[in-house]
Amino acid sequence: MIKTSLHLLRRFGAFHSYTNRHLNSCGSLILPRIRNKASVNFQTVRDFCSDWDLDVESVLKDNSYEEFSERIFRLSQHGHNVLVIQPFIKHQSSWEEGKLKNTTPELQLEEAEALIDTLSQWKVSDSMLLGVPSFNRTYFFGSGQVARIKEILNKKKSISAIFVSTNILRARQIINLELELNVPVFDRYTIVIQIFRQHANTKEAKLQVAMAELPYLRQCVKGFPLGLSDRLASGSVIGGLGRVLPQKRKDLLKDREQKLKKAIASLRKHRERLRSSPKIGSYPIVAVMGYTNAGKTSLIKALTGKDSLKPRNQLFATLDVTKHEGLLPCNLRVLYVDTVGFITNIPTDLIESFTATLEDAIHSDVLIHIWDVSNPDFLQQQQHVMDTLKRLEFGGNLEKKVFVVANKIDRIAKDKLLELKMQIPQNNTFFVSTKTGEGMGEMLDNLQKKIIVATGRTRLKIRVKTGGSEEEWIRKELPVVGMELENDSEHTVFSVIVTKAQMDIFKHKFLN
Ligand SMILES: Nc1nc2c(ncn2[C@@H]2O[C@H](COP(=O)(O)OP(=O)(O)OP(=O)(O)O)[C@@H](O)[C@H]2O)c(=O)[nH]1
Ligand SMILES: [Mg+2]
Question: PANTHER family annotated for this entry (predicted)?
Fold first, then answer.
């Protein structure tokens, strides 16, 4: 047997050069299904849920904090009828030249409405674009615009809140607007926090959302104008800040931050341990990241067939970073990591609070960046995602790791799709619909190639004695792409995908 294996090694020369040549010359890696699949013994790893045993509820439970934060975030169990305002600077070239170059105020307004629609029991009652020459430090809007808003509120008495779709308003601006308009005023930060609170189900998510709240509260405490302190304490401003004194509020936030940081450090350690466990460490890891609602969960569901994954037409439906096992056409098992989505115009602290769980994605072998090409704003969205990923310590490796999936092609006209395909280089972008399945086969072929190369795996053929211990080992340890019984049935040639470490074990066990 040693002789046959050596013969094989000689015949194919260095494993890597054979494999690379083969992969390059091969249009598709999807080979006919192996004959004897049932007997291939895969390592089965089903449960990737963490058994992190920290009592997060007791870390989070703090009545004074709850009372204080609820006043600031104006959490409402009954929802609101909202006037959505998308502000923009009039006559300013920033929409064309600045960081928002690929979008328009109209598209931003649509997204602002989608944020409100995502909150259960909140409804968009009315919406408007509001162009201003510049943003006012005291009221955010100029007096003319405030008068216009008042007019709308007078006409539509059912409006119970205003959402100003800018990333963050100063405490002073919120207080002044609320005193003028007599309804609570929200910015993107506070709306996203409400969504996070509604969607956080697991203790990991709850903890990270709690962390995401702190920078906002801190800026409220800091920016709190002294002259208003008594009126706020007495609750004459909507919500008010309660009766907690400024120094006490600072201490409250400091204490909470310390507790949360400690818990998050424990979460990080736990995730790190899981990542390096032999159970998970042997899998290629494929992170799926992208703008919120782009189809990350849908893609993973399509690739794994996992029924428990529930894609939803909501922003930030997924807050937990979770792993899901999938099988590539070459029978290699991989873990797909579902992640929290990104969104423009929110302070970076918000998404960065999720880094403890996003580290699983940071340590991935391949990063699928999924775009929703049916969204007219997708260029701006994908740019924003790339900018955020760069900030999230993906470092210099990022461009090499990224594999782009342009999703939802079923929602765009054929000629528009052709136009897009001409505009976007297609060597690293694959157009698909996770809904209809169009383009998924070609995408998966290419994803598989990328995973094999990124994880230092190679594909090769091994000829062994039929039914011998080598065959047994191969079936147990390696993804088998195909196998052929030689005419005399004495030998079988296996096509397998291997890492260098696995090949070394094979050589050690059977060749010497
Ligand atoms: N028409 C169409 N709809 C799709 C496609 N892929 C996903 N969707 C829909 O888009 C919505 C969002 O899908 P998800 O998979 O939840 O998106 P996500 O990126 O995980 O979203 P978040 O977790 O909220 O960030 C759902 O209603 C999906 O059914 C597609 O290819 N075509
Ligand atoms: Mg999702």
Answer: GTP-BINDING PROTEIN 6-RELATED, GTP-BINDING PROTEIN HFLX
Sign of torsion over alpha carbons 58, 59, 63, 67: negative
Burial code (b: 16+ CB inside 10 Å, e: under 16) for 419-457 equals ebeeeeeeeebbbbbbeeeebbeebbbbbbbbbbebbeb
Nearby residues of 481 by Cβ (< 8 Å), 6 or more positions away: 29, 31, 34, 330, 331, 459, 495, 496, 497
Q: What is the C-alpha separation between 406 and 163, in angstroms, rounded?
A: 31
Nearest-CA residue for ligand 1 atom 2 is 408
Q: Among 312, 320, 357, which is best to mutate for testing ligand 1, by the most ligand atoms less than 8 A from CB?
A: 312
Q: Which atom of ligand 1 is nearest to the CA of 301?
A: 15
Compute, in angstroms, the gap from residue 243 CA to the centroid of ligand 2.
39
The reply to whether ipTM tops 0.90 is yes
Residue 383, by phi and psi: left (phi above 0), alpha (psi -120 to 50) or beta? alpha
Q: Phi then psi for 359, rounded to 5 degrees?
A: -60, -30
| CA 217 to ligand 2 center in whole angstroms | 27
- Comparing CA positions, the residue from 411, 416, 447 lying closest to residue 430 is 447
Please check the confidence at residue 20 and state whether its pLDDT lies above 60: no
List the one residue out of 353, 339, 352 whose CA is nearest residue 287: 339
Flag the least confident range among 170-184, 223-237, 465-479.
223-237
Closest CA to 83 of 178, 161, 165: 161
- Segments of 354-490 assigned E as strands: 366-372, 402-407, 429-431, 458-465, 480-485
Cα of 312 to ligand 2 centre, how many Å? 7
Residue 158 CB burial class (10 angstroms; 0-12, 13-18, ≥19)? exposed
Whole-number mean pLDDT of the chain? 82
Ligand 1: residues with CB < 6 A are 290, 292-298, 311-318, 341, 407-408, 410-411, 433-435
Please give the number of the atom of ligand 1 that sits closest to the Cα of 316: 24
> Which tokens in the block code for residue 352?
């960065």
Taking the CA atoms of the chain, what radius of gyration do you get in angstroms? Answer: 28
Report the nearest atom of ligand 1 relative to the CA of 408: 31
Sign of the Cα torsion 92, 93, 96, 98 reads: negative
**Pick from 218, 219, 227, 147: which is nearest to 180 by CA?**
147
pLDDT at 475: 93
Q: In what order do the strands lie in the sheet with 480-485?
A: 458-465, 491-498, 480-485
Ligand 1 atom 13 nearest Cα: 295
pTM for the structure as a whole: 0.84
Say how far apart CA 497 and CA 500 lie, in whole Å: 10
Alpha-carbon distance of 68 to 19, in angstroms, equals 62
Alpha-carbon span 316 to 196, nearest angstrom: 7
Phi, psi of 165 (to 5 degrees): -80, 70
Tokens for 177?
């607007």
Report how far residue 341's alpha carbon sits from residue 11's, in angstroms, rounded to the nearest whole number: 49
